[in-house]
Each structure stands twice: as C-alpha cells, then as structure tokens.
Specification:
By secondary structure, the protein is mainly alpha-helical. It is built from 5 helices and no strands. Helix 2 runs parallel beside helix 4 and helix 3 packs antiparallel against helix 4.
Length: 135
C-alpha cells in the first residue's frame, strides 16, 4: 500500500512542479522564472536556518527546565521539511515549504503531524527500528 503512494508521489509531484515552472515561464519569462526559483531556494535556506535555530533554542530551554520538548520536536520536523521543500525546485513545494516555516501557519502542520503520530501509536503501527546491537 505504501509503495503505491510512494510511486504516485514520485510521478505526480515532479509533474506538477514541472507544470508550475512551465506556466510561470510563460507568464514572466524563462530567466525571471529561473531567478525566482533561485531566490526562493536561498531565502528558504536562510529562513529555515533562522527558524530552526529558534526551535532548537526552545527545545534546549525546555530540556533544561526538565520538560520533554514533544511539540517543539514536531515544530523542528516542520521546519526541516519546510527548508527542504523550499530548496527543491518548484513553486508548489515552495508554497508548502513556506507555510511549514512560518510561525503563523506551522501549528496547523504540527497538529496534523501530532494526530497522525497519535493514531499510529494507538493502533500499534508506529515502530522504532533499532540498528544492530554491537555491544
């Protein structure tokens, strides 16, 4: 079942991204489209670094206070995914990546991720695989 989803993503996502790049090229021109793709990549990397630093500092503060940084770790996953999506070429991934990085919209993704993990844990399908035991 998961392989079907993965295969669909491998085919559909690049097709949608290519369509978006071609459409943008028609609207604003090829060089402007290339410049926009490069700009979103560099700005995305900078925003991901900045937001990632904030999340990391928040997690450290929580751990120093003896708290488990559960929600903060989910925030970190959102920031990581958003940064990767912004550095990937394409406008659809840029829009999703930006919303993953912005503190205003990130709680929506954190909530969705939390609910997904909660369902996986409740039905027993969430497993942590350990590497080989060398000791």
């Amino acid at each position: 079942m998961m392989y079907k989803w993965l295969l669909a993503l491998i085919i559909i996502v690049p097709a949608v991204e290519m369509w978006g790049i071609i459409q943008m090229g028609h609207w604003i021109g090829g060089w402007a489209t290339l410049a926009l793709l490069l700009l979103t990549g560099f700005l995305g990397a900078g925003l991901a670094r900045s937001e990632g630093r904030k999340v990391w500092q928040q997690a450290q503060r929580q751990m120093q206070a003896g708290q488990v940084p559960g929600h903060t770790m989910l925030e970190g996953l959102c920031v990581l995914a958003g940064g990767i999506m912004l550095m990937a070429p394409g406008f659809v991934s840029d829009i999703i990546g930006l919303t993953l990085l912005l503190p205003v919209t990130r709680p929506f993704y954190r909530f969705v991720l939390y609910r997904w993990l909660e369902r996986k844990v409740r039905n027993g399908s969430f497993r942590i695989h350990r590497g080989p035991n060398r000791f």
